[in-house]
Design brief:
329 residues, two-stranded antiparallel sheet, 10 helices, 66% helix
Length: 329
């Protein structure tokens, strides 16, 4: 596997000039696109362009100095794929909301940043609680989130809580926004699992089948044993969930129901794949030893999602029956 995607630095002297030029060009381009989005047709004042160009050049030079001072800087595969996942999720949400006049790209970017922060905090907190002995011995590992070791269930709770606060404060339609974002969650999750594969975490049990992969990051001879690539299974299945959500969305009548469908689908996938997983969250659940920690959480999520959908369906059916009686009278 490849836990470190690339290493940056130390860079040669000529790269400083390139970084300065690219930094200035990037800042000027961002300013140009911003003015175009605001409908400004007039060229920007020369003074403004000079100041922005100097700011961009300073940023480029600062990057070159930082890389040469602390380089080589390792770009982790897992963290990179996490960012790619959030970026693709944002792109899909922007595409899906293109006909919504009250949902701007700026709103979606704000929501993405808030969800990202909440998800990382929640995922790390739950992971630390589940593996407290390991983190207690090395507390500095709590901040090294780019190396993995996050709980998706915790991330879902943290991201949902942080996103909910922003949605309510902005006065946006809660169920509508949640349904807009939830396919992006499935897409981003799938991409992030590719990062888990590259990082060598969340691996599966040994297998003699043709799909076995050796994870050399594991200690001793364990890394030489072919194992199920459960990370790639997860990526493929969640891409499938993403397309299912897109197909199902037009058929759902009430806002918020798509998120409940996602809870059900994710819980079924996660419960099943846990039989092939090892490592984090694959430990037995103390109260029900026959289940892993993730399976126990999936059962709870499934009960919430399916139960909520069932109650809404029964209430809608009862209301329809009452309306039929009133019409008959």
């Amino acid at each position: 596997m490849r836990s470190t995607l690339i290493e940056l630095g130390p860079w040669p002297d000529w790269a400083a000039a390139l970084a300065i030029v690219l930094g200035a060009a990037l800042v000027l381009y961002v300013d140009l696109r911003g003015r175009q989005a605001d409908g400004e047709d007039e060229p920007a004042p020369t003074g403004r362009l000079v100041v922005l160009g100097l700011i961009g050049a300073a940023l480029g030079m600062g990057l070159w100095l930082a890389v040469n001072r602390w380089g080589p800087v390792k770009v982790r595969s897992w963290g990179t794929m996490l960012m790619v996942g959030f970026g693709l999720g944002l792109a899909w949400a922007a595409h899906a909301s293109r006909d919504e006049e009250d949902i701007t790209l700026e709103t979606l970017i704000d929501l993405t940043i808030v969800i990202l922060i909440g998800a990382i905090v929640g995922a790390r907190v739950v992971s630390a609680l589940l593996n407290w002995q390991d983190f207690a011995q090395h507390p500095g590992q709590l901040l090294r989130v780019w190396e993995g070791g996050l709980s998706f269930h915790g991330g879902l709770i943290g991201g949902w809580g942080a996103g909910s606060i922003l949605i309510v404060r902005r006065g946006l339609g809660y169920g509508r926004i949640v349904d807009l974002v939830i396919p992006s969650v499935a897409l981003g999750y799938a991409i992030t699992r590719v990062g888990c594969f590259l990082n060598g975490c969340c691996y599966g049990i040994p297998t003699d089948g043709p799909l076995g992969v050796c994870f050399h990051e594991l200690a001793g001879n364990e890394g030489l044993v072919p194992r199920h690539a459960t990370q790639l299974y997860a990526a493929a299945l969640n891409i499938g969930i993403f397309f299912i959500l897109i197909k199902v969305k037009p058929r759902l009548r009430r806002p918020g129901h798509l998120a409940l469908v996602y809870l059900v689908l994710y819980s079924v996938y996660r419960f099943a794949v846990e039989y092939l997983r090892r490592g984090a969250t694959a430990h037995s659940y103390d109260l029900i030893p026959s289940l892993t920690q993730a399976q126990a959480a999936s059962v709870l999520m499934f009960a919430i999602g399916a139960g909520w959908l069932l109650v809404d369906w029964l209430m809608a059916r009862q209301q329809g029956a009452r309306e039929g009686i009133d019409d008959g009278e």
